[in-house]
Amino acid sequence: MTYTSIKFILFVLATALIYFVLPWKKYRWTVLLAASAVFYCLAAYKYAVFILFTALSTMLIGLWLDKVNTASKAFLKSKKGEWDREQKKAYKNKLKVKKRWIMALCLILNFGILAFLKYFNFFAGSLNDVLGSFGIDFSVPTLKLFLPLGISFYTFQSMGYIVDVYREKIKPQTNPFKFLLFVSFFPQIIQGPISNYEQLGHQLFEGHDFDFTRFKHGSQLIMWGFFKKLVIADRAVVAINTVTSSFQGYSKYSGTTLTFTILLYAFQLYADFSGGIDISRGVAQLFGIDLIDNFKRPYFSKSINEYWRRWHISLGAWMKDYVFNPLAISSAFLNASKKMKATRFGKTSAGAHIAKVLPTAFASLIVFLLVGIWHGASYKYVAFGLWNGVIIMLSTLMQPLFDGVTDKLHINRKNFFFRLFQMVRTFIVVLIGYVFDVAPSFKLGMMTITRFFTDQSIDRGASEILKLGLNWKDLVLLGVCVVVVWVVSMIQEKHADTTIREMLDKKPFILRFVLFFLLMISIIIFGIYGSGYAASDFVYMQF
C-alpha cells in the first residue's frame, strides 16, 4: 500500500471519515493509532516487533529519567539549609553522570539495533578485506539481514525524544499507546519528516474538528506530491536505473551520458523525496496536523551550507540539536580552539579566525560523515558525507579570504548575476556529491568524476541517452515538468511568508479550477502507473 496507490487514498479517506465522525474528540487520536498499526502491519507486519521495542524501551527509559529528576529535586529540597554549595555541586555532578548512563542505555539499545541491521555486513566485509590483505585466513560471516520499514526515521525521532527528556525540555509521555502513535504516525513512517515531540505530540493527541480549508489545502499538497512523484521522479528513474543496473554496464557509458544521468538524478531525487514529503504533510493536514516542512527550494541555495539548511530540514535540525551543538561546545573542541589561539599563528588575523571557528568546522565534518553513513552502508556514502563535510569545513575556515577577494574585486553581493553564479557554483558542488549516490560503487564514482572532464562526446552521448528507456517525448515532457516545478518554486521563493495554496485562495475561482484540473489531468495522463507497472519505491523508503 504505497503512498501513490489507490488503496492508500481509500485508506486515508476511510481513516479521515472515522476520525471526524467519532463524537469523542479527545479520543480521536485512537483512530490515528489504529490506522498507523494497520498501515504498518499491512506493509511489514513481520518486523513490527522492532518498532514496538523502540517505542516501549524509549517510553520506559524516559519515565525512569523523569523519576530520577523528580526524586533528586525532592532530595535537594530536603537538604536545603544543610548542604553548602560544594556539596550541592558534587551531588548534581553525580546525578548528571547517572542520567547520562540512563540516556546512553536507550541510545545504545536502539541505535545498536539500527547499526547492526544496517551496517553489520558492511563492516564484516571491510574487516574481511583488511584481514585478507594481511594474509590472515579468517573471515567474519555475513548475515541475511533486513531493514524494518522506516527504522531510521522512527529511531531518530524516538532518540530525539529521549534526549529532550534527559535535558528536561519536555515531560515524558505516560500513556504507552499515545507514545506509540508518536513513534508510528503513518503519514511520516516511510520517509519522515523527523519530528520532535514538542512540535508534534500535542497535535496528535488533542483531536481536531473538520476544517474544509485545511482539508482542501492538504488535498492540494497531496496532488502536487503525486505530480512530482508519478510524472517526474518515476519517469526519470527509468533512465537512471538503466545506467546503474550493473557494475560492468555503468563503466561503458560516455562521460556525457553519465553527466546527463547525474543531472537527471538531481531532479528525480528532489521530485521523489520532496513529492513524498508533500504527500506525508498533505495527509497529516487532512487531520488538522502540521508536519514540519522538509524542503525550502534547495537548488536556489548560494552556498553548500545554505543548501543543507534547505534540504532534508528535519534531519539537519536533528543533527544540529543532538550532534553538532554538543560537539561544538564540548570541552575537547573548545580546548583545541584555546590552544590554537595561544600559538603564534593564532595571534594573526587568519589564525584567530580559524581558532574561533575550529570547533564548528570540525563538528560540521563529523556531522556530515554521519549523514553520509546514514544514507547507506557503503564507502560511496562515506565519500558523499566527506565531500559535503570537507566543503563546508573549508568554506567556514576560509570565509574571510572569500570575503576579502569579493571586496577587492568590488563585487556587489546583491547583484543578480553574482547571486546566479553562486547558485550555479553550489549546484555543481551538489552534483559532484550526487555522483556517489548514483554510482554503484566508490570506485565507479571516482571514474565518473574523471570522465566529466575527459570523455565528453555530444554525438555518442545523444545516441546513448535515447537508448535509456525514455524516448524524446519523455525527455521533452520531463523538461517541461521541471520548468513547471522551477516556476512554482520561484513564486514560492519570492513569497516565502505564505504558501502557494494560500495565494491561490485569493485568486478567481475559474483560475483555481483550471490549474487544479490541469494538475489532475497531468497526473492521470502522464503519471507512471497502471497495469504492468511496478510502483517505484520512494528513494528514502528503506532508510
Outline the structure in words.
- This protein has 22 helices and no strands.
- The chain is an all-alpha fold and 543 residues long.
- Helix 15 packs antiparallel against helix 17 and helix 17 (416-438) crosses helix 18 (442-454).
- 34% of the residues are buried.
Which labels suit this protein?
mainly alpha; globular; 543 residues; single chain
Compose a concise summary of this entry:
This protein is mainly alpha-helical and 543 residues long. 73% of the residues lie in helices and 0% in strands.
- Overall geometry comes to globular
Strand count: 0
Multimer state = single chain
What's the end-to-end separation, in Å?
A: 18 Å
Strand content: under 5%
Considering DSSP H and I runs of 4 or more, what fraction of the residues is helical?
Answer: over 70%
How many separate helices?
22
Helix and strand pattern: HHHHHHHHHHHHHHHHHHHHHH
Largest sheet: none
Q: Compute the average pLDDT.
A: 91
| Rg calc | 26 Å
Structural class: mainly alpha
- The stretches of 5 or more residues where confidence is low (pLDDT under 50) are none
